[in-house]
Amino acid sequence: MTGVSAPVAVETPTKGVRRIRVPQKLRNLELFLIILVCSVNAFAVVLVQFGALGYADSTVVYLGAGLSILVFGMHIALRFVATNADPFILPIAALLNGIGIAMIYRIDIAEELTGWESTAVRQVVWTAVAVAISIAVILVIRNHRVLQRYTYIAMLVAAVLLLLPMLPGIGQEINGARVWIHVGSFSFQPGEVAKIALAVFFAGYLVSRRDSLSMVGTKFLGMRFPRARDLGPILVLWALSMSVIIFQRDLGTALLYFGLFVVMIYVATGRASWVVLGVGLFLAGGVLAGQVLTYVNDRFTNWFDAFNPANYEAVGGSYQLVQGLFGLASGGMIGTGLGQGRPDITPLAQSDYIIASLGEELGLAGMFAVLALYLLFIARGFRISFAGQDDFGRLLGVGLSFTVALQCFIVIGGVTRVIPLTGLTTPFMAAGGSSLVANWIIVALLLRLSDTVRNQPRLVI
Amino acid sequence: MSELTLLILQLAFLALLWVFIFIVVYAMRSDLFGQRVRKLREAPAGGQPSHNGAAQGGSAQQTAQPQSPAAPPPPAPKVPTFVPAPGTELSGPPRATTSNASRLVITSGPKSGSEISLGSEPLTIGRSSDSSVVIRDDYTSTHHARLMIWGDEWVIQDLDSTNGTFLDGNRVTAPVHIPLNTPIRIGATSFELRR
């Protein structure tokens, strides 16, 4: 049998369409950016040591190299399983993470923490865990549409994760908010991971339901409002976030979940009335909570009247907020220099207030650079979702990138006194394992989405 | 470490940070300014309005139907011609479904004759490089149109393109079902869904 291939050759000559494949081009660009990022990260740590200690010591090697090796590992994984993934997301995430580690290390020097006491060392270890999980996600999930099958399981997972801190045995209350679980010496904030499960659930749910949510309704004030019976989901979500405010005493998380839902339903249906309804509901709930719950009321008072000495000196008053603002002010345009400011005066300077610490030591120029990095990251996420072909992937991409955007807005807005301060983590930067894990999973999912977008059968004319 | 050295290092660090940002922005400039337009050598006399040029290409292909090449004149888009989906079903060829349409064939334009196999996933058409069918000519918008699947039937939707998408000579204003072997024209390119 020698003529095996003969019948194949007779087939239509147009069968083999030329597919444009430029896989290594994107990855090489990514490699170049990663090398640049690693040098910036190392530079940051060296500057911190020169500024705070006056000399460079070997810690640079551990802090810088650990992160770099992991990011290179992820890059290599992408070369094999997602050759067409977006080349910008990974370097930007790595840079934010690296600047965060340098800043945390700087606070550690000021507070004279070393070894396992040091937050920076723990942050590097958490980054390792997070990037490893991220690599695992990109290896396991070869097609994001698989996630659509688990729409309702994702809802269940999110509900369980949200309720975990309420369990008496493992739940733990830190600074008034009950959003932590504690097993042994290991603590975790399950709500951070719940936001991903919620995004998956919303995307799957809205893809199947959006017609009934967008087509019908009565017109009022130039907008088409949904029918009363279609209000179910938004009311359930509203009740959920209100219960987070009441029982877990966490304003930021509630705002994050509810905002995520409102934006995803707006993107799915294209109707502004959902945004009006959502914002109205949340404002009503927030004002009501401000009347009833003292901790919410305190946040409002600290925000409105931060510089009043009575608030400044009160326990749980505006001391932290005002110190953060003083820090930002002393930073000025180019900052005091890494390692040369006094960011450690502000409580929680390495987690909630890391952006104020950065603003103090890198100044307005550095803070805007960080904001620009977030902007690029989020814009990339929206771009990927916009280019997507299937509605589930598009909604998921929007939801995931919007969580990052909203989280940045809530934290940075709170620190700079644009909105009342609520405790959330600055994505990729703030000290905290759960936030890192959740955001690196988002990185993996966005990379997977972007690979799918570019990997379709293509014809170029 | 003197104050001055530290200041210079600090400025260098900030500069490096911004250099990274501008490298990223420069690398993604096509997102901001759109894809580069490529002039087509085959295009009829450059600078001609798109409607005339494309109508010629379209009429050459449409041998089966005695359809007048009266594509909507330039001011027409204000009153869009709606194609009732049931009408095409009665008279014309059967609707394309995922089971009976297996390929998208380019019937006119520079790449006439090439084809792409249809799966059960939607396709996008436009000038942007992430489209499934990338058409880089002057008449195509960045995100021009998309082929969707409703139930198991192929539907074409125009994504508010500048020069329009024409199904069998009629401008597509709302999502319409695509009949088999019926030309769809985008700029100077026509294609059909075939078995």
UniProtKB/TrEMBL annotation, chain A:
Q: Name one GO biological process term.
A: cell division
What membrane topology was assigned to this protein in its record?
A: Multi-pass membrane protein
One cellular component GO annotation, for this chain's record? plasma membrane
- Which stretches are annotated as coiled coil? none
- Asked if Membrane is a keyword of the record, the answer is yes
Q: Which GO terms describe its molecular function?
A: lipid-linked peptidoglycan transporter activity
Pfam families attached to this UniProt entry: FTSW_RODA_SPOVE
Question: Which InterPro entries would you find in this protein's record?
Answer: FtsW/RodA (IPR001182)
UniProt keyword annotation of Transmembrane helix present: yes
Mind listing the UniProt keywords for this protein, alphabetically? Answer: Cell shape, Membrane, Transmembrane, Transmembrane helix
What protein does this entry describe? FtsW/RodA/SpoVE family cell cycle protein
Q: Which organism is it from?
A: Herbiconiux oxytropis
UniProtKB/TrEMBL annotation, chain B:
Q: Does the keyword Transmembrane helix apply?
A: yes
Q: Where is the composition biased (Low complexity)?
A: 57-68
The UniProt keyword set, sorted, is: Membrane, Phosphoprotein, Transmembrane, Transmembrane helix
Quote the biased-composition stretches of kind Pro residues, using this chain's numbering. 69-78
In what residue span(s) does the FHA domain sit?
Answer: 123-172
Q: Where is this region: Disordered?
A: 43-121
Signal peptide positions are none
Top-level division of the source organism's lineage: Bacteria
Give TM regions: 6-28
What Pfam families does this protein map onto? Yop-YscD_cpl (PF16697)
Q: Which InterPro entries match?
A: Cell_Proc_Reg/RNA_Proc (IPR050923), FHA_dom (IPR000253), SMAD_FHA_dom_sf (IPR008984), YscD_cytoplasmic_dom (IPR032030)
Protein name from the UniProt record: FHA domain-containing protein
